[in-house]
Amino acid sequence: ANGLLAYAVTLVTYLSLWWFGIFNPAIVYDHLGEIYSALVFGSLVFCLCLYIKGHVAPSSSDSGSSGNAFIDFYWGMELYPRIGKHFDIKVFTNCRFGMMSWAVLAVTYCIKQYEMNGRVADSMLVNTALMLIYITKFFWWESGYWCTMDIAHDRAGFYICWGCLVWVPSTYTSPGMYLVNHPVNLGPQLAISILLAGILCIYINYDCDRQRQEFRRTNGKASVWGKAPSKIVASYQTTKGETKTSLLLTSGWWGFSRHFHYVPEILAAFFWTVPALFNHFMPYFYVIHLTILLLDRAKRDDDRCSTKYGKYWKMYCNRVPYRVVPGIY
What is the pLDDT of residue 240? Predict the structure, then answer.
């Protein structure tokens, strides 16, 4: 779990190369077409290699074929593919490459606007600051990310790996890409308001995950908002026929909805997009995509948990009736 250090080294190195005149990050922006083309096709070949590896040399017993070549390629065959003993492919694609390229490109767009205009608009500063705060939060919490669907349940295929190698750096950074050539002057009051609202959403998103992680770490004994947590003790059977138990948290943030942490995540994305105001649809493609992605992920997770926990999941849904947005959905 050295993501935070690797992230810091990456950004400090990148900015130092620019500051001392060794490398101009604006070149990255000028060649985005070539870079994205290389990522699109290079990552496609990479996913084909993952598909072949899953058939020929799986890294662990957590692998297998569905019997459909297209599904195996798209969803993946291995849960934890590795190169050698220590190089985890999903941690590299999702965390090291996907998230760090997001940060590097956010900084790149800021520098490009400065070179073009001799200044950085407050809209770009708010956008870049919120993205970097969110990504810093991600690496601070990286070990918790390893317990999410991306790592613990989604196999390494086109969906997750191509998405992190191509879709994240190209689409997730698109609000900043738009602002390079369309700077907006928000004024101090509006800029600070958007910044603070975005930081609050990022904090709530972090606190949701921290609350559940602490609840699990203490086996349900950690207090939630100063009170004993409300929970359901759910038993389930493993594929080997063993009976195990899990604790389902039903208070705190997790009493509002079963996937409440997606609400502040979507709102945070909105707040680092809204500095572009509403002159064009393009900056909002990412937040719309993220909303669809997370609603779909919430449904997939509910379906998986319903199969896993059975009657206990029904009890949980009765106690926490809303899937994502309290009172609505």
Answer: 79
